[in-house]
């Protein structure tokens, strides 16, 4: 299985926890099976939604090894190996490659941020060292820095960089970097409320929080658009907008885990500093879930 040229819905998978805070591998197996049964085209583990920033390297390795074995090559497994320390990102990337990941998601260097050449080399260092495809991750709202159009242009020609997860929410920027999309460099929406606009600019799919609760619908929305049924895809995108907005009433993944627990999926709580959802936001989320017939 390869992550290259991957199209469709890639779930940004949550990490389920026991009450004591440890990883719930039994539940993780159930979630993997749930996605394999419901059309999810790829699994992104250990990303923002997976709370890897609050997990140890040993836990990250254990989750990667477990998911790779559970999936057994049926869909690509992409592991989030990003760090604001390039050397740490390199070490994690090499470890995940050894454990069998099919691809890597590499985030910008949050907090220290860096300059243009530093940004370019941050990604190039890993792409030069591994033998599995890498996806750039642009999410300035979380990291305090973004990947400039010129750095995207330069990195788009690297033979081991397969695409970018674009989560800036800025369609003007997205249109500019969409000029570098080709058969070797893909564009993925990082925002569930902007899937169709990004597909219209040549995108290949979405790396989705929504897919944690609606995997089949997220897959179908993307594939309907890519296969030419744009009206049906539009109806899905707009029809799910209240649920999507509910999943981002507080910082991700707090609402999606709350939604999953309300839906009976029993994925547990959060790693600090994340905590339970506030009552007012929870009420709005519950209302959106009820209106969609999910609870």
Describe this structure in words.
The chain is α/β, with parallel strands linked by helices and 295 residues long. The chain has a single domain (8-227), classed as Aldolase class I (TIM Barrel, Alpha-Beta Barrel), CATH 3.20.20. The protein is 44% helix and 13% strand. The chain is built from 13 helices and eight strands. It has helices at 25-37, 57-71, 86-98, 116-129, 140-143, 149-155, 171-177, 195-200, 215-226, 230-239, 241-246, 254-262, 279-291; strands at 8-12, 42-45, 77-80, 103-107, 134-138, 161-166, 186-189, 205-208. The protein has an eight-stranded parallel barrel, surrounded by four helices. Helix 2 (57-71) links the parallel strand 2 and strand 3 (77-80). Helix 4 (116-129) packs parallel to helix 6 (149-155) and helix 12 crosses helix 13. The longest helix is centred in the N-terminal third of the chain and has 15 residues, at 57-71. The chain is globular. The mean pLDDT is 97. Pathway: Amino-acid biosynthesis; L-lysine biosynthesis via DAP pathway; (S)-tetrahydrodipicolinate from L-aspartate: step 3/4. GO terms for molecular function: 4-hydroxy-tetrahydrodipicolinate synthase activity. InterPro entries: Aldolase_TIM, DapA, DapA-like, Schiff_base-form_aldolases_AS, Schiff_base-form_aldolases_CS. It comes from Allofournierella massiliensis. Catalyzes the condensation of (S)-aspartate-beta-semialdehyde [(S)-ASA] and pyruvate to 4-hydroxy-tetrahydrodipicolinate (HTPA).
């Amino acid at each position: 299985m390869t992550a290259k040229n991957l199209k469709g819905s890639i779930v940004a998978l949550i990490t389920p926890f026991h009450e004591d805070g440890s990883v719930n591998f039994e539940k993780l197996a159930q979630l993997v099976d749930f996605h394999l049964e419901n059309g999810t085209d790829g699994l992104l583990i250990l990303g923002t939604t997976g709370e890897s920033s609050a997990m140890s390297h040993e836990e990250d390795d254990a989750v990667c090894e477990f998911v790779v074995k559970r999936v057994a090559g049926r869909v690509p497994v992409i592991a989030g190996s990003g760090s604001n320390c390039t050397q740490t990102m390199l070490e994690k990337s090499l470890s995940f490659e050894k454990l069998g990941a099919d691809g890597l998601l590499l985030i910008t260097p949050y907090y220290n941020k860096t300059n243009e050449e530093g940004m370019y080399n941050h990604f190039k260092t890993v792409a030069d060292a591994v033998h599995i495809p890498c996806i750039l991750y642009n999410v300035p709202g979380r990291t305090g820095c973004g990947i400039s159009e010129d750095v995207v242009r330069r990195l788009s020609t690297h033979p081991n960089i397969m695409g970018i997860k674009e989560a800036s929410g800025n369609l003007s920027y997205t249109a500019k970097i969409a000029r570098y999309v080709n058969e070797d460099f893909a564009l993925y929406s990082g925002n569930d409320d902007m899937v169709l606009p990004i597909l219209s600019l040549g995108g290949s799919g979405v790396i989705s929080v929504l897919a944690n609760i609606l995997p089949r619908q997220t897959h179908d929305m993307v594939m309907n658009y890519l296969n030419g049924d744009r009206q049906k895809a539009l109806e899905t995108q707009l029809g799910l907008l209240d649920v999507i907005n509910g999943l981002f009433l507080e910082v991700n993944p707090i609402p999606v885990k709350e939604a999953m627990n309300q839906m009976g999926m029993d994925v547990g709580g959060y790693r600090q500093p994340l905590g339970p959802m506030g009552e007012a936001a929870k009420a709005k989320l519950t209302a959106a879930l009820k209106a969609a017939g999910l609870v």
